[in-house]
Amino acid sequence: MFNGSGVAIVTPFSGGEVDFESFERLIGFHLENGTQALIVLGTTGEAATQTFEERGKLVSTAVEKAGGRIPVIIGTGANYTRVAVDYTKQAEALGADGVLVVTPYYNKATQNGLIEHYTMIANATTLPVILYNVPGRTGVNLEAKTVAALSKVENIIGVKEASGNIGQVLEIKRLVPEDFKIYSGNDDQIVPIYACGGNGVISVCANAIPGQTQQMCKAFMDGDVKEALRLQLLYKHFINLLFCEVNPIPIKAALNAMGYIKDELRLPLTSMEESNRSKLLGEMKRLSII
Question: What phi and psi values does residue 180 have, to the nearest 5 degrees?
Fold first, then answer.
């Protein structure tokens, strides 16, 4: 699919509606700054509050704007397998290059249930499927042995690992085929997961610093681990602040300060608390992001 920095792009809103003009402007920003893939309708894109119709238009807009220059990967996960299948079929029909499928939230499926869930989704599409493990959000961990079992399904080609458990990442790497992709789901672990045999990141911070995030990835892939680590440490506090409130609240505040979008989210998410906003914008000024 891709190596390097893929952005988990935000969904801009204006007056309660999707702001497609701002969305296209953001995609242009990423095309100009080296982002290697667009991940649309993920957690950062507030997928849980999008209608089926809105999803379709977002997919079509991303595919058209990207114009084949970088892959467009669509978040199609749901806690009902049939809905996830419907989302996946919609993405394929509209020209997406792949799908990212989060573990079913709230239901807390068993590992056997996860295998059946993902296998059914993968069998419903010809697109490459990336598994997405984020137990802090979903309440269920996609275990290494389960990832290994699913890696045998022909079009399940990788995993976004956001458990924060480096030991688990190493175990996945030990068990899966050499060409199975492992992407960091945590911006503060880009370099560590590369060191575990990873292939890049599906990133929140890349919304604001796309060039720098890709530069970090490229440095590691080029063998300059010292430079990759320097960049990881340089942006570490900024990354911490992007998660001082639930994602995507802080990254939307950051993009608003950069002039790209309105600071608008869909309930139950609300705008960033002013005390935290002040800290975030202060760090962005220190790093010359604004």
Answer: -75, 130
